[in-house]
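Query protein
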Amino acid sequence: MTTGMKRLSALLLAGTLALGLAGCAVQNSAEKLPETITVGGSGEIKAAPDIAILRLGVESRGATPEAARAANSEAINATMEAVKAAGVDEADIQTSNIYLRNNYDGNGNVSGYRMSVDMEIIVRDIDKAGEVIDASIAAGTNSLDRVSYGLSNESELYGQALEAAVQSARQSAERIAAAEGRTVGKMLSVTESGTGITVYANPDTGGGTAVMDAARNTSVMKGTESVRAELQVVFELL
């Protein structure tokens, strides 16, 4: 056998050995894959809201578009000054949904104009929500759509809900494993499958006429909120 052929034979043998060893490694790796169990977990944290979100507005009428705009601008500016005087930061006042529409008489002719502007006001001292509502109405607000509630530490509460969801998932996995005489090992992976915030508001402040009644009484009842986390977790099964 020539020197070149000997070298070729050696290379082929080395390649064959390498492939064989690689095949063994893949087989051994597959054999070491752990058995797993996948379960869902949920966590819920309830808390009293500490901020109020007021959705209100002003609708003004006039014989001309300019007259309607001027009346609306005066009422909006007065409302903003009133709520700031009640302790609301200007950064927490936002206007939106500006509309200018025609008014019609019984014959379908234009009889005037009306302009409306919506506002969202965040009251960070929730105990002052009723005071802010009263101040806005006194200043010219004539539409109060809804009072809703929020949590200034929502992220922190959601973190607690996540921790509770992981604990819930492990408890479920351990119960299932115990039924077969098995145990649960470490967590291998986790997926957030859902989040949510449920508001349990007092029905007396749910919107419309009820909200106006609450405003007249300077009474806003905040209820509670629930921050919820949903997970899917894969655990090692021993």
User: Anything to note?
Assistant: Confidence is low (pLDDT under 50) at residues 10-14, 201-215. DSSP finds five helices and seven strands in the chain. Residues 3-32 form the longest helix (30 residues).
